Amino acid sequence: MAKVMLLSPPYIDLYGKLSNAAGKYFPLGLGYIASFLRQYGKHDVQIYEPEAQSLTYRDIESILTNYRPDVVGLTCSTPNYLRAIDLAKIARSCTQAKIVIGGVHASAIPDFILEQHHDLIDCVVIGEGEQTMLELVNAYENQDKLDGIKGILYQDQTKAIRTPVRPFLDNMDSIPFPARDLIDQRLFTPNLHNARHRNCLTILTSRGCPYNCSFCASRIVSGKKYRMHSAEYVLEEMQMLKTDYHARQLLITDDTFTINHERLENICRGMIDRKLHLDWFCFSQVNVVNREILLMMKKAGCYNIGFGIESANETILKKLGKSIKPEQALKTVKLARDIGMKTQAFYIFGTPGETKQQMEETIRFSRQVGATLAFFNMLVPYPGTRDFQHFFANAPLEQIDWEKFVAIGEQCALINTGLSPDDIEDMLARANLQYYLNPKRIADLIFHIRSFYELTNYLKGGISLFQQILKWHK
Known about the structure:
By secondary structure, the protein is an alpha/beta fold. The chain has helices at 28-41, 57-67, 81-94, 104-108, 110-116, 130-142, 218-222, 231-245, 261-273, 291-299, 314-319, 326-338, 356-369, 386-392, 421-436, 439-447, 452-473; strands at 3-7, 44-48, 71-75, 98-102, 123-125, 152-156, 159-162, 200-203, 206-207, 227-228, 249-252, 279-284, 302-310, 342-349, 373-378. The strands form 3 sheets. Strands 2-1-3-4-5-6-7 form a 7-stranded mixed beta sheet, with helices on both faces. Helix 15 runs antiparallel to helix 17.
């Protein structure tokens, strides 16, 4: 039995003024790896999420020193990649552990990471991590060679060796529920705009996305094929979250929860039959739901649904790889509104070739769509995406400021753009002011409030957004 410590690097301060509205989420990816290692390898595993647990780097060093792990596993997205490297330095300084890094950023540019940090990183996991980490930990424990393990890049004496691609897991139900017991779930809170109840937990019911968005990096780890947990697996996990963790609200974090209608119907009917009485949020596409489906979801507890609308301009939508039309967005959001659901609409500024006039068109269109909440985001061209190749094709990776790559961040990460980053940030400020300084919009927000907790979170989130608007506008 090996001792494995899994670490999630901090990130919330990277949101700047919006950090006060940002949530703290249990790292589901590490939770799945931990449960997989425990069930199939009988290994001893710990997980630490420093921000939720209020742990400093010095605290982490002390924990590492006392636990003396055999393997340290780090996950990272693009903006907190350098924080993961900081944790690797700490682990290297106080343990003899093998240090492994994975996650979407590591999977996108593994060669660069190993080349830059071969003194810190023993192995990079590329793609889905459960089976790969199990085989790695077993190999390290038994002092076996790594060349038979698929989906890794590692340093072997003087050269880097990349093994064949690991196939994605097909039997999703073979993955145990995430090891939520390793961290007190009461420490985690959702983004303020999604917080209706204090006892709110996240759940992931599928992996892979069949769509072709130019800005989406999730397929780097999860692939294009849509792979689902069965409805029974999902319902058992939901029941467990309610029974064991007293959940009152769920955030379903799938890229698009509503793709498979048969499974969706089985989940919704199961939630109703089991009398789970859970409020829940999910993401969808405007072209994959209709009135009947939305009514079924609402009856099962879905009070809040988010749609990636992105732009009002069909040329921009095509550049983004979005197979939707603006009129579909108008129709679907109206359907959801009419049956009493809270709606969220997401828009993107900064698509290659996008003009100010096209952004202004989107701002006007967003008011026509009239979602309860609208989120105007700067395009973030994550490594491994088509947009990254457009904006950063000739940029030396070591000179890129990765901490700017925040989905809803303070600063525009784009370079070589037609519009300056300042122009794009100013457009965000204008979009938010025009959208929310509207009595009708404020009345709609108030109409959907169901708890004092939700009200206070709206107020706190609104203050954070206004502070960020001022900074963008300056």
